[in-house]
Amino acid sequence: MKARKQIILSAALVAGALLVVAAFTFTGGRDQAVTEAAGGHDHAAMTAAGGGELQPVRLEAEAARRIGVTYATATRKSFARSVATVGNVTYDETRLANVNPKIEGWIEKLYIDFTGAPVRRGQPLLALYSPMLVAAQEELILARRLSNEAAAGGGERATANARELLESARRRLRYWDIPDATIRRIEETGTPQKTVTLHAPASGIVVEKMAVEGMRIMPGMDIYRIADLSRVWVEGEVFEKDLSLVRLGQGARVAFEAYPGEAFTGTVTYVYPTVSVEARTGRVRIELANPELRLKPGMYAKVELAVGDSRRALMIPRSAVHITGKRALVFVRAADGVLHPRAVTLGLISGGEIEILAGLAEGEVVVTSANFLIDAESNMGSAMEPMSEADPFAPPAAGAPVPATTGVVDHSGH
Q1: Helical segments of 305-385, H only
Q2: Tell me: the pLDDT tens digits for 197-254?
Q3: Of 214, 298, 318, 333, which residue is 20 to 30 A from 283 by alpha carbon distance?
Q4: Residue 4 neighbours by CB under 8 Å, 6+ apart
Q5: How many angstroms from the chain centroid is the CA of residue 297?
Q6: DSSP string, 394-414
């Protein structure tokens, strides 16, 4: 009984193996027939891989208008590579001046009493009372009197000593930034002044003011900061890979949101010797003339640096180029209005335009918008063309191989 069960089990296993072999043979034969019918290639896989050729697209004028198709002509024009970056307006550090008295005292009166006030070189800023200044004035008056007396009836040595003492008193006041005109007035009047007026060391705008009437100031304390804004700097960040293209003396075009549609020209005056480790960028300095004070520190700026000499190149809008992953395509409009897909070789980018190295001729018209719709239409035509010779829903003839499945793949990248 046990042996009989083993015989039955073995027979069942053999029968199952024969069924598997028969099914594999049948399936392999059908797949081979399908492959041969497709010309030895899997058409669906070929289409998905982008192997199929795109077909021209006929687009009526009304349809083009409805989907927003626009055109542009390939034009040969002057082309110069540029580096684009952003930055901010800052003060020209060589035109900054600090007012910080070298003597202790109290502010008796402010003549420039608000931030943003324009000042001229030599204009009065404040009146300062200082006991040390009063004592220095008295010494000057005494030295002047001794010098006059020595010159009138003293000996040669006494006269020389008196003159040296007078010059020493004058020099002491000059070291405290007292103007020569003030010193002469003190000598002529013979009366010390309670306060001495401090004057602006440079022309510009008061960008910082710490002075308040009645405030006590100490030597070296900053009480004003004056900036000459007739020339400003724009400091921009350039990616590390583009730093080798930046040179001193290069021209730059700078645009500001405050003045849309207007470009300012400047010059690269300095390339900083360090690179930011975090951002991988280096700083460059651009100098701009600002005679009307329209450019204000802190403004956001867009900078374009011209790189190299300009040359003639065939240019089209960047929006006309359709990147599929394997190639770059443009749709060229023929004389009859049909749009033909064409592979092109791309060059450098300049603003909103791109250089075409091969595949397009000057004067040809290309599509600049709705490319993805036209590309989808072109792909659809490529996929449906093999099926247009027969009714796709008709049953296959007797003995004919089963047709391979045809797939439609959009290569537009959308």
Answers
A1: 371-384
A2: 889 999 999 999 999 999 999 998 999 999 999 999 999 999 888 888 888 998 899 9
A3: 318
A4: none
A5: 17
A6: SPPPTTPPPPPPP----TT--
